[in-house]
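Forgive a beginner's question, but might I ask you for the amino acids of a protein and the tokens describing how it folds?
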Amino acid sequence: MKKYKKIDVNTKDLLRVFIRNYISEVLKAESKLEKAKTELTLRRDFSVASAFTLFSSNLQKKINKKDFIEKSQRLGISQQEKEIELLYKRYDSNQDGQLGFQEFCNLFTPCNPLYRQELEQRTTIYTMSIETLDIFKHLLILLIDTEILAE
């Protein structure tokens, strides 16, 4: 039978504070992420189909990690493969190493049912304005940073 080192009261208190602060930081990051998703949804020149075409020329094609990294870099977002792995770990629901269109939608769709429905109804591929593209890139960075924090 394994013997564990007894933790003193001060260490337990420090651990509780650390866990509470960590959970608080993750919740703040998730809240910030949701606000950014909502802000992007309110942009009339944004659709998930438009965003998907930045990574793939065909809505039927899936986006592998290598392509995701390469297309992100073209957008000016430089991320390590490990960081993209975290994103795929959460959003690649069938764990095939690729993001299909529906999985990609989950990256950018807000939790709020009204905003979710509004965004899901936009199927047209728009040309995003510079402002919308900047918001999109900011959201993509937030998604990756939130996954890093949660890990």
About this structure: Residues 9-150 form a domain with the Recoverin; domain 1 fold (CATH 1.10.238.10). The first strand starts at residue 63 and ends at 64. Strands lie at 63-64, 98-99.
